[in-house]
Amino acid sequence: xxxxxxxAGSARKxxxxxTLMRAILKGAVRAGAHTKEVYLNGLVFKGCQGCxxxxxKGKCILNDDLTSILxxxxxxxxxVLASPIYYDSVTGQMKTFFDRCxxxxxxxxxxxxxxxxxxxxxxxxIVTYEDKPRKDYYHEAEKLxxxxxxxxxxxxxxxxxEGKLGPRDAxxxxxxxxxxxxxxxxxxxx
Length: 190
Known about the structure:
single chain, alpha/beta, 6-stranded mixed beta sheet
């Protein structure tokens, strides 16, 4: 059975990006996957300290709420990353999470950039925002998708860049959007 882990970078568990993440995970469950939801804002974790220990030890030496999540992600076949756009970028929580994922990008033997996640994986990157669809916000999602490639063999990464979601519950009130997200999860992780 595949394991798919959703990482929400929003401060709101019921916000638009988290709602779309849950819809995708629901589709993954329909396809037979085991899923887990992680809300970064509810965790206590530090950002990367720049200590470089991950380059020689093969893992981040910080021991906090993110440690077990990174261990689970190391084994998961699917990742769903969701963040609203705040001030033209993903949230600080998501950026801090990605900084800590550096451990997945460095070969401890050579200490050079080399994906450390073994086996094929699939992913989804979700960004949501109030404005009309904008290319620069899509590019924020593309950056995260590219980072996944630095970590491992993500054979397929889908991008969901959804605008015009002003109110906090706008995605909840868009059954068409939720149905598309659920179908994406079923198709991608099935």
